[in-house]
Amino acid sequence: MKTWSEVAEIQPLASRIITNSIKKDRISHAYLIQGARGTGKKPIALLLAKTVFCTNKSGSEPCQECNACKRIDSGNHPDVHWIEPDGQSIRKEQIDHLQKEFNYSGMESNKKVYIISDADTLTVNAANRILKFLEEPGKETTAIMLTDNSQSIIPTIRSRCQVIDLRPLNPDAFRSQLMDAGMSDRDALLMSALTNNLDEAFSWNADEWFAQSRKLMIQWVEMFSGHSNDVYLYIHNQWMPHFKDRKQQEQGLDLLLLAFKDILYFHIGRQDAMAVFPGQGEKIEDLSMNFSQVQLLDILNKILEAKRKLKQNVNPTLVMEQLTVQIQR
Ligand SMILES: [Zn+2]
User: Fold this and answer.
1) Domain closes at, from 165, 180, 215
2) Label partner for 110 (CA 20 to 30 A): which of 19, 190, 199, 286?
3) Within a domain: residue 171?
4) Residue 243's closest CA among 184, 154, 323?
């Protein structure tokens, strides 16, 4: 998605809202772009930044070739800055630091663009800092906040942003896209359940870390059917050392979610929908005997709750321990 007309094919509404505001020369001070992974948040943010700084635009389309466009693409435009969580959250100090840098650096113009990924991890102080900066007179500052977790955006942010909702992509269409690109049927099924991004799907599929994640997920689920008391040890010795940062821990929970969904699918005779265990009839049959449908629904809810806790910066080891207790009950 390198142009607004390409964005329009996948995210027509988002493209229309943003290009209209460009045409009217009324770009918002703050956008909140929300949508699941792979729906185009980052490409849209980049394109918007280019649209602000391009010196050779044709209509609302940036040229992609001028100095400004190239520097934005390579991530070193002096007036465009990406902010990402430092650990589990985006802290006020990060914003302060950035604003100092902006003020000292030889500005090329009065315009600034902040692109804030995982905006749901902004602390209240960091969010207030940004909002205050946006409202300083004489500055033409645009903040583009991105999130795949719109429920966790603090209200002061939401109410001050133009909210752009990205629509979800269709996993079945994506799955055939992956298979067309050479991925096996089975891998495509799992990958399309985890991401909407083609590059991500192929890189995960070839990745040693991801292969190990798959193994750990299956071992974890099997421990519950074996009534093993070693689950805690397993969390401390195997799970936590492998899933290190917040992104990885979330991915671990996504995998667990898929595994338990599969067991539920098996129960209701939807083997065709299974993403983790297709073709492993015996294993899934063993697993399914340990859980009733009601229990499985409850477990799925508990895993979603664990994901929310991670987002709220609860200690990840604690989250996994609590989840274990809840599933064992
Ligand atoms: Zn340009």
Assistant:
1) 165
2) 19
3) no
4) 323
